[in-house]
Design brief:
The longest helix is centred in the N-terminal third of the chain and has 18 residues. β1 and β2 form a beta hairpin. The termini are far apart. α2 crosses α3 and α6 runs antiparallel to α7. This protein has ten helices and two strands; from the N terminus they run αββααααααααα. It is mainly alpha-helical and 164 residues long. A two-stranded antiparallel ribbon has the order 1-2. The radius of gyration is 29 Å and the shape is extended.
């Protein structure tokens, strides 16, 4: 068995419908993908109160990240007069695709970017899981039984007792 051409195996674009038109977002270059990952990591570190790499974040400020992640779709969206919130949502969806996966990007897109919709609440998770309703507790798995209490009167009642 030989390796197949990778370009034939990977789906290398996102197709995003906006206002009745479909925009094709091509796969980013390796340099763009690596830069997006570095920027997102630095942003996550900063959000957690850590020390972010200022050089990475400054680099992001210098470049038009949305244009980079949307590729040729960016100019097409601008020419078509796509509103800012829609262009921004498309760009962030592309970033999710780059750093996570197409499935996660689709989930982000379909929730309108609402984080509360990305993680269903506890009741929804339980209602969709039959296993949660049918799984029984295993109890102890150590294989040992507890010792019965000493019936001779507690500590030192037999061999440790003083003799007169």
């Amino acid at each position: 068995m030989a390796f197949q051409e990778l370009g034939n195996l990977l789906d290398d674009s996102l197709v995003l419908p906006i206002k009745g038109k479909t925009y094709r977002v091509p796969a980013p270059s390796a340099a763009t993908g690596l830069r997006v990952q570095a920027i997102m990591q630095a942003a996550a570190t900063a959000a957690d109160g850590g020390q972010a790499d200022k050089e990475v974040l400054a680099d992001a400020a210098e470049r038009d990240m949305y244009a980079d992640v949307l590729g040729t779709a960016h100019a097409e969206m601008v020419a078509d007069g796509v509103e800012w919130p829609m262009l921004k949502h498309a760009a962030v969806t592309a970033m999710v695709w780059i750093i996570q996966s197409k499935d996660r990007a689709e989930a982000y897109w379909n929730t309108g970017g609402d984080p509360s919709q990305l993680a269903p609440n506890r009741q929804q998770r339980r209602s969709t899981s039959d296993a949660a309703n049918k799984t029984r507790s295993r109890g102890s798995s150590s294989g040992t039984k507890p010792r019965p209490a000493n019936r001779r009167g507690g500590k030192g009642s037999s061999s440790g007792a003083r003799r007169k």
